[in-house]
Amino acid sequence: MSSRFETQDKLIEATRHIIIYEGIERFTLDNVCTRAGFSRGAFYSNFSAKDTLLAALAEDEYTDLIDRLNAKVDEWREHGEHDGKDRAVMEDLLFEALDAIGVNRSLYVLHSELLTRSVRDSEWGARLLDLNDEFIRALTAVLEAIFAAAGRRPTRKMHAVTHAVIGLVLRAAGVDALRMTAKYRSEKTKSRLVGPAMVTIDAEEIPDSPSVADSPARDIVEMILLLLYAASEPINE
Fold it and tell me: For residue 72, with 0-12 CB atoms within 10 Å meaning exposed, 13-18 middle and 19 or more buried, which class applies?
């Protein structure tokens, strides 16, 4: 028998899966319960409404991202082997941080849906604001650590730099998803020797990029390096 926390986790994961692979319009109580393997009674024993479940998903998603970013900074502080003063240091650390986040379809879809809802619904926006602010602080700490390791210091307000980085990351995640989908469709069409119109694609079949370095959106990610250089200067000059 599942514990209360296990039931909640399964309902949250079912919601996450539905939004990413089926779309927010498929986020219904029946679909969530069916995918999680629970009855409506089990749902209402854990969440008062769909909106409460969506809020739990947002908290879970942001908390996971924040934990991964904090762990990456702790790892850098513990090992310290990246210290240097060149572009390679900044690129290595940036790519490590972005791989910790996951610049892919899941990031793009979930955060686009959550942010869009926050704009349309002021109550939801208020719920999301504190989580978003905490994420901004975690990412700012990552960027500050990257600057320090590369022997540079910011010349612009870090709050603004962080928001600009997030904009590029989300765009890269969206383009990664589009290009990976097109690539997978092309490969599947060739393997079956049929026309594109005859190929049915299951969204779950399409893999995420293994890393930023191998992402079809790497050219967009590399713009973040230009941004970081433009917003900083060498410490000892």
Answer: buried
| Residue 234 φ/ψ, nearest 5 degrees | -60, 140
**Regions of the chain with pLDDT less than 70:** 1-2, 80-86, 190-203, 237
The class (CATH top level) of 1-47 is mainly alpha
**Shortest CA distance to 28 belongs to which of 44, 56, 2, 51?**
51
The verdict on pTM exceeding 0.90 is no
d(CA 166, CA 221): 11
Q: Which fold has domain 58-234?
A: Tetracycline Repressor; domain 2 (1.10.357)
**What's the pLDDT score for residue 77?**
82
Reported as a single tens digit per residue, the pLDDT across 58-106 is: 999 999 999 999 999 998 887 765 555 567 889 999 999 999 999 999 9
| Nearby residues of 78 by Cβ (< 8 Å), 6 or more positions away | none
Amino acid present at 72: K
- Domain positions in the chain are 1-47, 58-234
Residues 101 and 140: their CA atoms lie apart, in Å, by: 14
